[in-house]
Amino acid sequence: MTTPRALAIVAGLGPGISYGLAHKFAQAYDLVLLARSASTLDPLISKLESDPAIKSLKPGPKIVGIPTDVTSVESMSAAVAKIRELGKPVTLAVYNVSSGFNRSPFLETDIKDIENGFRSGGYGGAVFSKAVLPLLLNAVGKVTWESGERVNPTLIYTGATASYKANPGMSAFAMGKWSLRALSQSLAREFAPQGVHVATVNIDAIVELERTKGMLAGVEDGKLKPAEVAETYWGLHTQGRTSWTWEVDVRPWVEKW
Amino acid sequence: MTTPRALAIVAGLGPGISYGLAHKFAQAYDLVLLARSASTLDPLISKLESDPAIKSLKPGPKIVGIPTDVTSVESMSAAVAKIRELGKPVTLAVYNVSSGFNRSPFLETDIKDIENGFRSGGYGGAVFSKAVLPLLLNAVGKVTWESGERVNPTLIYTGATASYKANPGMSAFAMGKWSLRALSQSLAREFAPQGVHVATVNIDAIVELERTKGMLAGVEDGKLKPAEVAETYWGLHTQGRTSWTWEVDVRPWVEKW
Amino acid sequence: MTTPRALAIVAGLGPGISYGLAHKFAQAYDLVLLARSASTLDPLISKLESDPAIKSLKPGPKIVGIPTDVTSVESMSAAVAKIRELGKPVTLAVYNVSSGFNRSPFLETDIKDIENGFRSGGYGGAVFSKAVLPLLLNAVGKVTWESGERVNPTLIYTGATASYKANPGMSAFAMGKWSLRALSQSLAREFAPQGVHVATVNIDAIVELERTKGMLAGVEDGKLKPAEVAETYWGLHTQGRTSWTWEVDVRPWVEKW
Amino acid sequence: MTTPRALAIVAGLGPGISYGLAHKFAQAYDLVLLARSASTLDPLISKLESDPAIKSLKPGPKIVGIPTDVTSVESMSAAVAKIRELGKPVTLAVYNVSSGFNRSPFLETDIKDIENGFRSGGYGGAVFSKAVLPLLLNAVGKVTWESGERVNPTLIYTGATASYKANPGMSAFAMGKWSLRALSQSLAREFAPQGVHVATVNIDAIVELERTKGMLAGVEDGKLKPAEVAETYWGLHTQGRTSWTWEVDVRPWVEKW
């Protein structure tokens, strides 16, 4: 728990990593969850609120879903207006937005896919960051943990192997992810001395999800569990400011790399 | 000289590196030079054509300027139509387009600048590549040097230090350049086995130009000379196909890095 | 606490990061601490044992110092024999050994310094790893946390900025550190599928120590606090095996990079 | 040809890349070739001298073999004494020494193999560099090409994919190669401003050799030809000093990476 009770924002809510993050952050934070549509947000928020680990918290976290296109300046700006109305400091924000991707030969890749890779990659990351950084800067030095220690406002991006390696047939996805990593590195250098910790987590894994059930079927713990990677995000957020990490990679024990 | 006489395309013609490239390539190639406006192209083409080293060539190179916005699918498509009319194989293409950049704090950086960084970075690179790769693929195995050796069609991108390092205040420029490097790496992997050599040259330098005259004024050979770096591009183009390079860095001897 | 009570090994005990690690690990582990001489080990172990946070633990950790040259196969082998006598599983081992370094022009650098950089870098890391990996492998699947969750045996190396960047005048130090990072990457890939988590922490900081008191004097939290970075090592050790990190960087909020 | 006629040194002569380098350099240079034993040097020098392309040169190059253990300070020092006796400026030196390597599980890898990896990697590179850098520095500004342009003394190291990627079972080889790359980067930064160009070529290929005949048998141009990669080394050597490259990768067109 933080004093005063602060807000964590997760952009790109879905059933995978972002849900795991929300579940973890709810232990200490009120939540603002962003996804394109209420039809994505509502069932996941219901699931969160009815999770025994969340229900048992006293006081329980307030969880607000705001349908938002985080790659649109206007939409993101409207979301921030609503977040400000909540009247709480924001000390944690995660950009966990991804385009889907298909491997396709470059000459068969639509230029729109390249556009879209950038939209949900670096561009969306920038739109989101421009919106939330003022909130995070605002909270520097003003929120503490129950222990009395300083809460360092933190902005985390979810990357992928494709954030630093561009495989054949993956240009659209990789271009977006590389540009997001560039953003993250530039902002880490600019905002750390202002008190905001900027970090990146590169996921090298298939995530354990309903729709990935058939994959790596026989391999024990072969897929990344959102609840496990959430600990790594949380670890980044709680690092003391003499020891901040910019980038970590995560992958299952059996992953080849 | 190549047999049959082939074409080199340089996109992003200006007075610096690209002019040096055109000057070098003209020793062996006819040229198609692309820049946004005829007012940029015309004086540089006149300068090229009147250069003694070019004038002395027999037969002299044919140099065609096509005003083109290489970041527009339509404009680039029109340019390719004109190139096809020239009826010559294309075995060398260079993407040397850059947005200018200003260091600015992220929260004062217009989202348009981020958009533009990507336009002239990865996106423009992709538009250009989608247009010229069919031409390059078409020339695989069909053109030789006077010596009889195979000319390997080559696609080269100009990068920068900001292609792999994102400094504070440089997010817009870096995001564009990182995405271009991602494109280059993905295409290098995809097209090498099809016979097209894809490479990147990362420039870590101030270029010697009229407008940089005042910079590093007392330092001998402190600025990159386009004629010198042109040899490195040429070296990439003439590598035998058992020994292709994807990426090189270049910087003046006195540069700190 | 682990079940059964397990051992953590820290190689390269000194007053800085390694002391912070020992202090952190003692919350859950018995400790084996390695340093070249008893005169280094004894006062630090006394300090640890008399630390209120350690003294209050019931049962308190057993802390054993073994004077060892971890860059010597024989000495390390003798240490392992003593560790085996303790009869406990080993689930955490940290290689935190460094040569000191002085910037010196390469032609004035003694070849012995280059030898020594490698001794305490990759070579010492390899000697240590060959000695402790059989112990760690032995503990795979056999130790749990009080919660019942699996303890994943973990081997962590301390690196530096010089692990991936070789500055002028720093060749001896950098060569040792790069070779250690290579070792760490190779072993991470080899041992993860066998159940041992191998990771690297690259420190980009001046460490807060008695002898660094005068440095960055006016800068609040400008130096890395061992207690803070210890949380990051602990975070690596406690990652679930679907989400293992190989490498993290850490630096103070005000550090330029 | 250079004025005055200068010397190129190739360390690690064998039938592969280094032979290709010697063959290329002989077009312009007298040669000093180093290998452990006369039984390696003599037949290769005979082969070189009887090569039609070399025999046709007027004046032909002087080719001197000096049996040398380049990883021994004493042996390398004796070689330099002999080189000095030749009374010629040295403007090109290549370190092309490699241990062989076998993939082996780390716990079955002899610590001697790790020692040896470093010997022929960074350590040998350092011994060689300490010996030849004074010669190279001595030649700065004193030698020109026939065109009158400055010859920039150049020191080049041969690396491998294992110079930046450490695969499982490859720790000994990778540790040596990473340390050599670190050396190369540190020296590039230190000696460029003194006029000596330091560069690295990372080979990602099987080299076309008698003993690799059976490998990639059906693949046209699937193996790296020493004569082709020699052009890349030569290109590095002849770069103007406003445009020096530190690192290039090379691989056959069909290589997966």
UniProtKB/TrEMBL annotation, chains A, B, C, D:
Family annotation (InterPro entries): NAD(P)-bd_dom_sf, SDR_fam
Taxonomic classification: Eukaryota, Fungi, Dikarya, Ascomycota, Saccharomycotina
SUPFAM superfamilies the UniProt entry points to: NAD(P)-binding Rossmann-fold domains (SSF51735)
Protein name, per record: NAD(P)-binding protein
